[in-house]
Amino acid sequence: MATTSESPNPPYQDLHASSALQVDWSWKKWQSRIYSPSAPSTTMYTVHYNFFKSPDITVKAGPSSPSSSSSSPTTSTVIGTGILHPISINADYTVHNRKGKLKALKRWTTEYTHLSYAYASSPEGPPAPMRWTSSSHFKSWDFICLDEREMPVAKFSANWIGLTKVATIDFLGPKAGSEAARDEIVVTGLTLYSCMVLRVNNLGNLVGAIFARPGPIKEREQEGGVKETGDGKAKAKTP
Predict the structure, then answer these.
(1) How far is CA 120 from CA 7, 115, 148, 176, 181, in A?
(2) Which of 20, 30, 208, 217 has the lowest CB atom count within 10 Å?
């Protein structure tokens, strides 16, 4: 199935993270809690998972209420959602109600792209094409997000052996402190990681990879003008 793309000297190794977030998993609630290691008592995001109906992932601001569950998230502000597919190797997401797509650039290696408004050169300009690549180690599976200049801006590092502390998210570069960039990376990073976990455990995605059309995202795909069929092929939506 999918493999990781290895790099002998990943560029992010030469940079220091300006900020970082910790992702903790709760087996009891079937939720993730995201917080800054410098303020561990303050929950910045709560992530709800529901793999039986769409969306599969819901990222909400702040802590969950005592009565919330993965299938019935609280009414707090929704930051974004992630949608996985049983056959297609691509994934869909929303960030602040703006739809987006994580599209595979290659069939058999972990290399994806999404169009970013948070990292665009200007608010009124076109979104910036971002590229996700990955590398795996003994204890972690790292997903590195590169901007349109191929500079690393974030790293989502999943912990292979962690039972509760399952991941960290590092933010790099001049927008490391940007709330919009942070929201986007949290949503796309979680969605991509979940997509890859599904791919390595699901034979349907193997079929989807065979019929996939990897490559950069076209404007009509980003705007929802293309709907993927079950075999991973693109089909134009009718008005």
Answers:
(1) 26, 9, 9, 14, 10
(2) 30
